[in-house]
Amino acid sequence: LRLMLVECFFMFYAPSHAQVDTKEKRVVIAQRLVFEHRSIIEAIRLQDASKAAAASKEHLDWAGDLAWRLCIANELNV
After folding, report:
1. Per DSSP, which regions of the chain are E strands?
2. Angle at CA 60, nearest 5°, toward 31 and 34?
3. 39-74 b/e with 16+ CB inside 10 Å = b?
4. Mean per-residue pLDDT of the chain
């Protein structure tokens, strides 16, 4: 959970890039992250390893891609 909170901090509060420069954009990202985190936690609670693994992979793929794009955009000062 600590890693999730760190991820959320860097996704919502740290970036100053235009992709997340509005409250509306941050809300959309936050809603998706919360939904995905809840899906992972629910699968773990139900002891459904395959569902937890699939939800985790989907989440990490999406969040990682977003973080990568924000990092590249930041480096390019876009």
Report:
1. none
2. 20
3. bbeebeeeeeeeebeebbeebeeebeebeeebeeee
4. 78
Question: Is 18 buried (19+), middle (13-18) or exposed (0-12) by CB count in 10 A?
Answer: exposed
CB of 10 closer than 8 Å to CB of 67:
yes
pLDDT (tens digit, 9 = 90+) per residue, 21-59? 667 777 888 888 889 999 999 999 999 999 999 999 999
In which region does residue 17 sit, left (phi positive, over 0), alpha (psi from -120 to 50) or beta (all else)?
Answer: beta
Q: What is the spatial distance between Cα 6 and Cα 15, in angstroms, rounded to a whole number?
A: 13
Entry field: residues in the chain? 78
Over range 65-78, report the average pLDDT.
70
